[in-house]
Write a structure and sequence with these properties.
The chain is an alpha/beta fold. It has 14 helices and 14 strands. Strand 1, helix 4 and strand 2 form a beta-alpha-beta unit.
Length: 467
Amino acid sequence: MTSAESRKQGFEIWLERFAENPSPYPTVDEYLEAVTSRYKTTNENLPPGISELRNLWRGLIGINPGQIAIVLGEQSAGLNEPPLVLGKRLVATAISKENPAIKIVDFRAQSDVVGSEPGLRRIVLPNPHQPDGIETVNILSGKQYQDSPTSRVPALELDLQRLSTTLAKIYGRRNPNLGMLEAWFDRVGEFKNVAEFQDYLLENLVGQLVEIIPRRFIDYQLETEIFIKGGYGLIMELWPILLELVNKAQDEHNIRNLRVPNQDEAPFYIIFHDDPSSGEITPSKKPKMIPRGRVLMEERDGKRIFHWCESPHARIVSASMSEEDIFDQIYRGLISVVFRTIPRAVILSLIFDGHITGGGALYNIEIAEIFPQIFNGIPHYPITYMTPRNKFNEGIFRYNSYPLRKTGAPHIHEALNAVIRNAVSLYDMILSIDPVEASQLIREVINIKKGNFPFNLRLDLTKSSYY
């Protein structure tokens, strides 16, 4: 692998998780028709006990009886993400214009427990003076937190001075939007961790560009409530059959790149709010190796016991808890929980009637196949997304990137290709447009198209790219 390939690899993997195929619903109206149909099917066919849980959990979110609800899924990566992430906000705004009664919820995954998202720490910018046309900036330059979830990394560990210096080098100190970004950076001390600060940055940008900002729910806060209000019991009951059916679905669809947990792994992760030693946790008597982040479980004397490793470096089990211990420490505010991807997908599909994603989510193929087998023939909720054109040869936004406005740079074509594909971080777009003019262009398109808003739209913001 060349050095250029090594620098790009994390972001490319992240980007290519998104849609490889067009949305199955060409327009908002066709998507809403599928969502409405699924809502009716769910209400008519969900078993009574599960229906009670669905209504309880929907109440936690403020979904009224009879109201259709759609969820946006999002990692807390802030402006590190590619412009594609704004696509779901365009769709949400178009839906709200077409049907204001629909509740749209922003589910924010702040707890990347196992470090699965390489883009959470790295920023990719076009730079026609670099051999591959891009420049990457690692905003967590030290080794101490490189493997830690961003919700566990203090916000002040971000190397924002390095980022500001790089942005000034590429976009010019006089860039009209650089001062705005640096004013946002100056507030980093107000945030507890990197995930919260990343969310703040993204919401600042979103607030400038679109009219509708859905109510936001944080994963560990909502899922801990669901966990103690029936979620733990349901998922523990379903966990063995879920794993069996997901493995079977992967075999049938020849899916080889997604690991399915083992039977002795718990369907959730544990998040400590303080030092683990302060929680009266019983040290494990089992000197057993365990991958960071995972929680193992076993039956002992008729009780279910959970083991995990809290340290991001050690791999020896550091602590154990019984079911009673976990619930006790949740009620005392010492820990929270987040569900693993497979049970999370099931729970979200039980609560909501549709999902707008950035272009793809892990295990959706498998869950779509097994959900009807578990829940009385009810289909997995309809999923849609803004679709890049020509298999990533074009992104959903067209704009005139600021560092590419001068000709003669040696690698202008490589940098231009990255921008056309939207394969760079949102920092490039925000430093290349007038947000006021861009917002007006977005509003005009949504107001004109409304229910006919297409998911393969390429939105032209070049008129806002000149200053």
